[in-house]
Amino acid sequence: MDVTRLKSSWQQVAEYGDEVPLFFYSSLFLTHPEVRSLFPVSMALQRDRLVGALGRIVSDVDRVDELVPFLQHLGRDHRKFAVLAEHYPAVGEALLHTLSHFLGTRWTSDLAADWTAAYGLVAQVMTEAADASAKETPPWWDATIVSHDRRAPDLAVMTIEPHQRLSFRPGQSLAVETPLRPNLWRYYTPANAPRVNDTIDLHVRVVGGGPVSTTLVQGVRVGDALRLGPPVGERLTLSGREDVVLIAGGTGIAPFKALIDQVRSEGGDRRVYLFAGGPTRRSLYDLRALRALAEAQPWLRVVPCVSREAASDGVEGGDAVDVALRHGPWRSESVYVCGSPDMVAGSVHRLAEYGLPRERVHVEEFTTGTEPIGGIS
Ligand SMILES: Cc1cc2nc3c(=O)[nH]c(=O)nc-3n(C[C@H](O)[C@H](O)[C@H](O)COP(=O)(O)OP(=O)(O)OC[C@H]3O[C@@H](n4cnc5c(N)ncnc54)[C@H](O)[C@@H]3O)c2cc1C
Q1: Given the CA of residue 339, which atom of ligand 1 is nearest to it?
Q2: Tell me, what's the pLDDT at 376?
Q3: Distance, CA 251 to ligand 1 centroid (Å)?
Q4: Final residue belonging to a domain, choices 109, 134, 159
Q5: Among residues 58, 157, 256, 354, which one has the fewest Cβ atoms lying within 10 Å of its Cβ?
Q6: Per the domain annotation, does 291 fall within a domain?
Q7: Structural domain range at position 93
Q8: Angle at Cα 168 formed by Cα 252 and Cα 37, nearest 5°?
Q9: Are 122 and 84 contained in the same domain?
Q10: Tens digits of residue pLDDT in 51-74
Q11: Shortest-distance atom of ligand 1 to CA 205
Q12: Which residues pair with residue 205 across a beta bridge?
């Protein structure tokens, strides 16, 4: 396989931008209409994911150490979309057809052989990982909503009950699908450590009028069904025994409540400082519960803060990261940050300016999409 030739041909195709996934999916659904039901009704976002994932695969094609774990993750993750081994050849055919369409006379028999071999390897690694995980876990977990507390027009705290045991580590996230929005999976983070009765709390805020968050906040009811994917993410889980500083924006407190649960179950043998931020007091939707937690646990300090209002009544003024830095110095603690992408990026930047070594800062880093990416599945 000529890796340079493979990469340069992909670059030439990627220059056609949105036309590439449009052509790919048209070709796939025309020749294999049976796979259409695996994809969301609206394909608008899906198109970017295909190009993004293929780009990542092709650019790492000569770095097996990085590519293989990524493909194995994709293979396992695609089980929740009901992707089966027999779907892979259909996708491979559509991919080759797409490449030949855009490359025209540059699509030679040697290049076709390279792409066929590369896709064959990708499909093999993904199906083997999927088969291995099928021996241990179901493709998804069915769950029922057992409580739904609409704390604000745009925010709900719900408790769900998986029908089968779902093991996860505090700080990990789960992909969630509601049948009201089929095939649209989004990550949400349990706000508790695993419980004896297996129930899981989720905090969901509507963002950008998006389909899944809007449905989970405004459209679902107690008794409704959800599907859950396997737990993902390691960066927000606790490691070591050192004290921790948790900096949260909005529903970013969810993983931190899970970590606090974990420290409590381990006997409260480390100090935990939680800085829970939002723009206004009204946005601090979980303040009462957080204060009750802090009152009950001597090792826990909770500092609520607001960035767009003045400080008052135990709520400090400023962005959560700035308030956290005011409470320093943090010489040995591990610092965890969770919130919107902008909040996380801004906080990481401020912590670097403050001089905190990057290895002591924990944030979730996600590169995988949450829908089937077609081109490599
Ligand atoms: C690991 C992980 C854990 C997550 N945990 C939670 C959680 O516990 N609670 C929760 O409410 N959300 C959480 N999210 C965000 C969630 O997965 C969805 O992205 C969000 O609910 C929007 O989905 P949607 O379908 O409604 O909107 P989409 O159609 O996905 O997005 C609508 C618009 O909002 C933008 N957008 C998406 N997410 C965000 C965001 N977080 N901040 C700002 N803009 C955004 C999109 O770019 C788009 O323009 C988590 C995300 C990740 C990656």
Answers
A1: 41
A2: 23
A3: 10
A4: 134
A5: 354
A6: yes
A7: 3-134
A8: 85
A9: yes
A10: 778 777 887 888 888 899 989 988
A11: 11
A12: 155
